[in-house]
């Protein structure tokens, strides 16, 4: 079964970037602390990164995040999707207009201009095809940014919400939640490590 999983790191005060994020400073001021866990040597952190990367049949991201990961300080052979794992699933970008060129042309990019539902549907098709090729169940991960995840949640497209709660207070930046549909989630699991608290919730449809 292919699940749609929203997966993102977040600060204690609810931000997924620090203040003033930009092309050369994607996580904003002080935002690097959000992803300390993804590069740590903690065995549980490493397990979570590895298992998430291995289960990723397709990944959805917004255009702003694409511009950062495809930009001059973005992903490379040492650090890409899955941090040091550098996974290469299919990537589906939600955008109003595809870019004129792509730096990371070795990755499988699809650009969807018709909204978040179509982006998730395209990713589901790609993940199911990858599952058939590999012989194991693979999932769709909606990795961000915050607007893309909140839009997918509000549209009722998410099965599981996974938050990597970093022990930082950023005082501003890009919030994950800014209103939207009220809902009660069911806690699935909690894993505490030396760098973060990893929490997964089932999301009612």
Number of domains: 1
Number of strands: 10
The CATH architecture can be named as 3-Layer(aba) Sandwich
Helix/strand/pairing category: alpha/beta
| Annotated CATH homologous superfamily | Dihydrofolate Reductase, subunit A
Note the quaternary state here.
Answer: single chain
What's the level 1 CATH class? Answer: Alpha Beta
Which spans have pLDDT < 50 for at least 5 consecutive residues?
Answer: none
Strand share of the residues? 25-35%
Number of helices: 4
Secondary-structure element sequence?
Answer: EEHEHEEHEHEEEE
If strands are numbered along the chain, what order do they take across the biggest sheet? 5-4-3-6-1-7-10-9
What form results from the Cα inertia axes? globular
Biggest sheet: strands, sense, closure? 8 strands, mixed
- DSSP helix fraction: 10-25%
| End-to-end separation | 16 Å
Alpha-carbon Rg, integer: 16 Å
Q: Give the mean pLDDT.
A: 96
CATH topology description: Dihydrofolate Reductase, subunit A
Pfam family, one: RibD_C
Protein name: Dihydrofolate reductase family protein
InterPro entries: DHFR-like_dom_sf, RibDG_C, Riboflavin_Biosynth_HTPR
Quick summary of this structure?
This is Dihydrofolate reductase family protein. The protein has helices spanning 43-54, 63-69, 116-134, 146-154; strands at residues 4-10, 15-17, 56-62, 90-94, 108-112, 139-144, 160-165, 174-175, 186-192, 197-202.
Describe this entry's structure for a reader.
It comes from Streptomyces prasinosporus. Pfam families: RibD_C (PF01872). InterPro entries: DHFR-like_dom_sf, RibDG_C, Riboflavin_Biosynth_HTPR. This is Dihydrofolate reductase family protein. With 205 residues, the protein is an alpha/beta fold. The protein contains 4 helices and 10 strands; from the N terminus they run ββαβαββαβαββββ. The protein has an 8-stranded mixed sheet, sandwiched between helices. It has a two-stranded antiparallel ribbon with strand order 2-8. The protein starts with a strand and ends with a strand.
